Amino acid sequence: MFETLSDRLTSVFSSLRAKGRLSDADIDATCREIRIALLEADVALPVVKAFVAQVKERARGAEVSQALNPAQQVVKIVNDELIQILGGETRRLRHAKTPPSVIMLAGLQGAGKTTLAGKLARWLREQGHVPLLVACDLQRPNAVQQLQVMGERAEVAVYAPEPGNGVGDPVEVARRSIDHAVRQQHDVVVIDTAGRLGIDHEMMRQAADIRAAVDPDEVLFVVDAMIGQDAVTTAQAFMDGVGFDGVVLTKLDGDARGGAALSVRHITGKPIMFASTGEKLDDFDVFHPDRMASRILDMGDILTLIEQAQRTFDEQEAAKVAGKLASGDNFTLEDFLEQMMMVRRMGPIKNLLGMMPGMGQMRDQLNEIDDRHLDRIAAIIRSMTPAERTDPKIINGSRRARIASGSGVTVTEVGNLVIRFFEAQKMMKRVAGGMGIPGMPGGRKAKAAQQKKAKKGRRVSGDPRKAALGKAGAAAGAAAGGSDGPDGQAPTPPGLGALGNLGGKLPPGLQLPPGFDPSKLNFPKQK
């Protein structure tokens, strides 16, 4: 959704990186480009004016003029201001001190409230709550049936005493749902109300009556992120007619320009709490202003990627595979298949790679990624026998033909997969061996240092005379039957035992000249 805005801002900042110092003219030109980029993204004009004025004021301050890299400092300023416009800090749900907590959904027709109710209920269930969906949209045809289907898919109970299609009182249904939740021990109640237009005073009054009847802890206004600046007018009408505590953005995966996300928070003063990024029930998460700003500026969203990996990967299984990766040989095609399926459960590969920094510049390549290629790889591996998965070296021509026939691919594709797997094994071995990088455990230089240390023995003097004396002394000691002591000192030759208390050893470094026999010396007798 923010691709156009992200591309424009990236091009603006790339022109600044070549400048060592920013003048007032450079700052004015940059702010003008930022203003055009925001207006093209359909951001409300008051929001654009306030944003550009704040960026320009900070860019002319001391934090940019004294910075080592002014261009990066301007990027930081724009990032900080984007975070503030999007809400500053992540806003969490408020829960009642005494269950159940009541959450009421309101919004325009077609904004996606009923689908969002199922997504929110599923998210609450994953957080450890026991939610209850309440069907209070009794006007739209089959709205009650749609909510029941969403509840079944989300594995959440649905309270729908009225058939809908214009039959029943939504205010009374909402009031009775609280008693039902208490009896059935549900700690969160999610009320799905009828869609309405901002000018429909009767429907707005119905929403206000439901709010007065159940006194919800949170009233969430559901906004279609594709409607642009009109979201501001609608949000203001709901704010005056019903009132709400937070905003939920839907259809963030669309190709619209996304100005609603940057406008609603600034105009209404209410935080964006959740975002829906797809049609599936798990395409829903808490809205993080700092992460969204980072995505807009093409700086990636590593934290969200890590959280998705933590929810998908089993820690014990990951540790087991990490040990196999370190050895290289023990990593089999079965392990490769398990890891690939874990990555597939995290979501489309294109979305995962899109969270990496700088991937906005490779958008065309990302659009060419087809997840069905991973499905073909999985089919090839599953067509192998357990022995072939463990030891792909036994896969000969006839086996490749059988595997290709079973997986619906060509023999060439099977051969290419086996070759790439062997290459991956070699790479793992190099990584496990340190790849020759200094300081890496198991590297070539580390092994060479260990071998050199093992070969390192007694040092020999570079002076030939000293070296000859040392060799002669060692030979004399061996001829005398002596041996070096545990600390490397030579034993005392015969006849020198009377020269003080030497403990039977010569002092360190003392060596006798060759042919010298101290036993023939005549010492005075001791009294």
TrEMBL record:
Q: For bias kind Basic residues, which ranges apply? A: 444-459
* Domain notes for this protein: Composed of three domains: the N-terminal N domain, which is responsible for interactions with the ribosome, the central G domain, which binds GTP, and the C-terminal M domain, which binds the RNA and the signal sequence of the RNC.
Location of the protein in the cell:
Cytoplasm
- What EC class does the entry list? hydrolase
Q: Which InterPro entries match?
A: AAA+_ATPase, P-loop_NTPase, Signal_recog_part_SRP54_M_sf, Signal_recog_particl_SRP54_hlx, Signal_recog_particle_SRP54_M, SRP, SRP54, SRP54_GTPase_dom
Q: What are the UniProt keywords, alphabetically?
A: Cytoplasm, GTP-binding, Hydrolase, Nucleotide-binding, Ribonucleoprotein, RNA-binding, Signal recognition particle
Q: Where is this region: Disordered?
A: 435-527
Source gene?
ffh
Reaction(s) catalyzed by this protein?
GTP + H2O = GDP + phosphate + H(+)
| UniProt similarity note | Belongs to the GTP-binding SRP family. SRP54 subfamily.
Question: Per the UniProt record, which EC number(s) apply here?
Answer: 3.6.5.4
Q: For this UniProt entry, what is the primary localization, expressed as one broad class?
A: cytoplasm
Output the GO biological process annotations, alphabetical, semicolon-separated: SRP-dependent cotranslational protein targeting to membrane
For this UniProt entry, the molecular function terms from Gene Ontology, in alphabetical order, are: 7S RNA binding; GTP binding; GTPase activity
- Single GO cellular component annotation? signal recognition particle
Q: What is this protein called?
A: Signal recognition particle protein
Q: How does it assemble?
A: Part of the signal recognition particle protein translocation system, which is composed of SRP and FtsY.
